[in-house]
Amino acid sequence: MDRDRLEELLRGDSLTDEQTVEIERILMEDAAGECALLPGLMKYHRILITTNGYVTNKHIHQTTYAYITGIENSHPELNNYLVYLYNREAEYFTFLNSSNEALYYAQRILDLEDVPAVYYASAVICILNILVNAKLFDGLWMYAERIKFLLEDDSIEAPYRDILRLALLDCCAFAGNRESFNEIAPVLRKERAEMSDDDLLAATIDIHLTICAFSLPGFSESLSDAELLGEFDRLVSYIGSSHGVMDSLEALMMPVFRAVRGKMSREDFIGRVLKIIAAGICKSDSIAYYEYLINECGITRQEYPDVFNAYFDLLREYNGIRNDAEKQSIRILFFENKMKKRYIEAANRDKLTGLLSGFAYYSNLAKLTPSDDLILVIADVNRMKYINDHYGHPEGDRALVTAADRLRACFGDLGDIYHFGGDEFCVIARCSEEDILSAIEKLNRAEQEEFLPGFCLALSAGYAKYADYRDEPPASLVKFADTNMYREKERYYIKNGFERRN
Q1: pLDDT tens, 366-406?
Q2: How confident is the model at residue 62 (pLDDT cuts 50, 70, 90)?
Q3: What domains appear along the chain, each with residue ranges and CATH number?
Q4: Treating both helix axes as pointing N-terminal to C-terminal, what angle do 283-295 and 324-335 enclose, rounded to 10 degrees?
Q5: What percent of the chain has pLDDT over 70?
Q6: What is the pLDDT of residue 320?
Q7: Which of 266, 309, 264 is nearest to 290 (CA)?
Q8: In this predicted structure, what is the pLDDT of residue 329?
Q9: Which end of the chain has fewer CB atoms surrounding its CB within 10 Å, N or C?
């Protein structure tokens, strides 16, 4: 009965408030029970996105979260829907500037098995945006490498490939990597030339090609004042004609402001910044630009009463502020380093296993320093697909927790342990090779313990030590340890007569 009624309600292209209330009741009851109406949920979301946009759509968030809870707690057979649901939550929290929640759901997508390339790409882009806007550039290039890998996947269609290239372009700008920037920019310019000016993606490409150039070393110095101001005016024009800039540009825009502010009159500069604010949709960007005008340009309420009124109105809208004391509190919450520290700490810990997360892994890997006692271990759970297929995903999760406990027991005194995706783990240790060999031997002995009736859980581990690869950067130990791990995995499957696909 509810299925028929839901289909009837979703036949049109728009919804009344009364229909929305009834649909939400049906979906929330289903999420708490059988989770049988997921196709209807996805159609409901499409209608809401088409008619209202989903940047801050509470109806999409509420129903998405309800189904995530229902599937994770009671319906592991529906785990293939989680990638869609996690992606919705990651996008929702990204637009709300709730970076810790967005990062959590994006990382959950990366941890799933058999994720479609488009959703995997969306998760990587979400993580990149969070790192960029928090100005956490350590580890940024590790995620950029994932994008390069994704661009080789022919299953990703052209528009999404351009979005991936834009994310990579942003990484090049922040890393100051002119060589990689010069490889990507011509491809984007060629794609842009084939688009109409009304295409929102075309406007986005125009903006990013112009804005990213300002972050490259020597760009501003290579242009005359007139040329520099011409580039800035072109950027302001692109933003003004973009039908509303959806993505956050604040971290990219600040180098532009610094480069051009002294090249024009104070009034002209302020006027251009206000045009950028008027064209933007991302409220956190607008708040940052207002604060730049107040703190860096020294504008006062007496000079620009309308600007100050708009700034405080935006703070009220964005944060629910009602008085000056609350305004100051929220400013500290959103713009001081305490915020960064809070969500970085949450992102650094894997929720399932309690180990350090993939976010922490890629960040710390990029910061490794050469040392002869540096040893990196890669470990992988054997027959993980078999466990999920024959015993269910809850047992698969329990297998990962058990693997994490074993790694703690064997390697906990030697270094940091990471669960960086799926059934993969890493230990970054500074110790002797004898210590590592002893720990791996202990890990191998543990596979004799029965995990499920008639089934013993085993991990394969391979390691690489920096002393053997002094001419390589420390982070390159990953590929050598990974190769050795797969060699051990092959031996395990041959020894026990198992097929690798299981």
Answers
A1: 778 888 899 999 999 999 888 988 888 889 899 999 999 99
A2: confident
A3: 349-496 (3.30.70.270)
A4: 100
A5: 85
A6: 44
A7: 309
A8: 36
A9: N
How distant, in Å, are the alpha carbons of 10, 22, 40, 64, 78 from that of 4? 10, 13, 10, 21, 21
CA torsion 186-187-188-193 (nearest 10°) is 90
pLDDT band at 330 (very low <50, low <70, confident <90, very high): very low
> Which own/partner contact pairs does 369-373 have at CB distance under 8 Å and 24+ positions apart?
369/474, 370/466, 370/470, 370/474, 371/430, 371/466, 371/474, 372/465, 372/466, 372/467, 373/430, 373/431, 373/432, 373/466, 373/467
Number of H helices, E strands in the chain: 23, 6
The neighbouring-strand residues paired with 460 are: 380
Please list, in sequence order, all residues whose beta carbon lies within 8 angstroms of the beta carbon of residue 405, skipping any fewer than 6 positions away: none
The residue type at 84: Y
User: By the 8 A CB rule, do 355 and 412 touch?
Assistant: no
Alpha-carbon radius of gyration of the chain: 25
Selection from 178, 130, 126 nearest residue 147 by Cα: 126
The neighbouring-strand residues paired with 374 are: 430
Task: Identify the H or E element spanning 253.
Answer: helix 250-260
In the DSSP assignment, the letter for residue 221 is G
| 399 close to 405: Cβ distance less than 8 angstroms | no
> In this structure, what token pair is assigned to residue 375?
């040893």
**Over the stretch 183-211, which tens digit does the pLDDT of each residue have?**
888 988 888 888 887 776 787 888 888 88
Residue 415: which H helix or E strand, with range? strand 415-421
DSSP class of residue 161 equals H
422 DSSP 8-state letter: T
Lowest mean pLDDT of 66-70, 246-250, 478-482, name the range. Answer: 246-250
pLDDT of 433 > 90? The answer is yes
Listed ranges 42-56, 256-270, 353-367; the one with the highest mean pLDDT: 256-270
Burial label for 298, CB within 10 Å (0-12, 13-18, 19+), is: exposed
Instruction: Please choose, from the candidates 354, 403, 397, the residue with its C-alpha nearest in 3D space to the C-alpha of residue 378.
Output: 403
Judge whether 185 and 172 are in contact, CB under 8 Å.
no
- In angstroms, what CA-CA distances link 236 with 177, 208, 210, 273, 496? 24, 12, 10, 8, 65
The total number of residues shown for the chain amounts to 502
Contact by Cβ (8 Å): 466, 481: no
**Is residue 119 over pLDDT 60?**
yes
Partners of residue 452 on adjacent β-strands: 455
> Among positive and negative, which fits the CA dihedral 316, 319, 323, 327?
negative
The dihedrals phi and psi of 358, each to the nearest 5 degrees, come to: -60, -35
Q: Which of 379, 404, 399 is nearest to 389 (CA)?
A: 399
Q: Which of 309, 244, 232, 314 is nearest to 273 (CA)?
A: 232
